[in-house]
Specification:
alpha+beta, single chain, five-stranded antiparallel beta sheet, 27% helix
């Protein structure tokens, strides 16, 4: 890969991965009509990408805000305090969660002190190339080949699992919501978005209810892990017992 190994480019690569991961979950669970998706390649893997402008903007805005939180926390130099990001698929009639898709972040470090801002997330890279060139990463074994190899492997495993569950799943009327599990010290009701000068108004803090904490019969399917440099993530899926039982 010809790109310089800098923190902004690595963050953009993580952005691409999360967007692709989310789109595959929506596609294989047929949350939206399959006709709105095109087949393309990402991480040297065949994936499906929506061509609906409104949906694509929603997903990109969501992932951009998530990366702001991952890197900068709530803007007070307390990044690295995201535990996991989850896609919950729930039955719209019963409001019961049927499936969970989880990216868990392990030992994430605070990157906020290493980068001035994340404006490059919102700009066309070709027009903002200077902000992508620093800082250069110098970590043993942290190379583009290793980054792409591990992300490609875990993406392939996720897609194969999505195909399996699609063939055996019930025809529930499902929709989705995205939840970010943070450490309690993070407060998203503050202004941290330097590019848009706006608050995280799209995020709502949830409390754990007795219903949420009920013991449910579930099936957990580990997908795999990525461990390269400061990117240490586990991916797993969780289904209610009736799904793929």
């Amino acid at each position: 890969m010809g790109l310089p190994l800098t923190l902004p480019y690595v963050i953009l690569t993580l952005k691409e991965f999360i967007i692709v991961w989310l789109n595959q979950v929506l596609y294989y669970n047929e949350i939206y009509p399959l006709e709105i998706y095109d087949k393309l390649k990402s991480f040297d893997t065949i994936v499906y990408q929506s061509r609906n402008p409104a949906l694509n903007k929603y997903v990109e805005d969501l992932v951009n805000e998530f990366l702001q939180i991952l890197v900068n926390g709530d803007g007070h130099d307390n990044g690295g305090k995201v535990n996991q990001i989850l896609i919950l698929l729930y039955d719209v009639k019963s409001n019961k969660t049927k499936k969970k898709y989880v990216v868990k972040f392990n030992e994430m470090i605070n990157l906020g002190a290493s980068i001035n801002d994340l404006n490059f997330l919102y700009l066309v890279p070709e027009k903002d190339s200077e902000s992508l060139l620093e800082p250069v990463i110098d970590i043993p074994s942290f190379t583009w080949n290793e980054i792409y190899s591990q992300l490609k492997s875990i993406l392939f495993s996720q897609i194969e699992e999505l195909k399996v569950q699609k063939n055996g799943s019930e025809n529930d009327d499902l929709f989705f919501k995205v939840i970010v599990d943070l450490e309690d010290s993070i407060n998203l009701n503050v202004n941290i978005n330097a590019a848009t000068n706006s608050q995280h108004s799209n995020w709502v803090k949830l409390s754990v209810t007795s219903e949420d904490s009920e013991q449910r019969k579930t099936k957990v399917v580990p997908i795999g892990e990525v461990s390269v440099g400061f990117i240490c993530i586990d991916i797993y899926n969780e289904y209610t017992k009736s799904v793929n039982a």
